[in-house]
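**Backbone geometry record:**
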Amino acid sequence: MPSMLCPLNSDMRFVIYVKKGIYYENVRVENEKWNVMMFGDGLDNTIVSSNLSIASGTPTILTATFAAYGKGFIARDMGFQNTAGAAMYQAVALLSKSDQSVFYRCSIDAYQDTLYTQSNRQFYRECKIYGTIDIIFGDSSVVIQNSTILVKRPLLGQINTITAQGKSQPAFQHWHIHTKLYYSTCRESFGGSNILGSAMEKLLDHCYHGKPIGKLD
């Protein structure tokens, strides 16, 4: 990935085209890389892939296949995946700490801790998000719009959780989710419940179509 070539602290948009292919690497757009835009040939065609996981001794925050820190980051028509698998526990596909970041027509695919919306303001539209436990988690102010969340089969005895929030103090952070939820296998085969949201710390203020978070009916 050519993100290392981006100018530092630039107010100008720096656009990178990533052609069709699977890129086996861990990519990090650093704090000083502002206003970077990456676009590919489609969410199933341009894919960044890795398999770092907490089970292999890597801290959760460092397992991310793709991490965006510099403000104003945009990704379009790309896929981000972590192929570690359910048995490897926390393994992040995409982490964003980029303020005013946008992900449009992207695929974000893993099992536990798929999408780490770490902090700041973020917007996701027409994305596909796959996972099992704590699929979307973090402490950011997020809008996920016109997107699809696809729940995979977890390990035996596990409970699928769509969202989990880690904040401990009330602030402006919140999630507003307008999506469709799908299951990759029938619910009875999971051997447990599927939960829309859980609190990892003291507070929980997610909403799903403006409704309180709880068990799926």
Notes: The first strand starts at residue 14 and ends at 17. DSSP finds no helices and 20 strands in the chain. The domain at 10-208 is CATH 2.160.20.10 (Pectate Lyase C-like). Confidence is low (pLDDT under 50) at residues 184-192, 200-217.
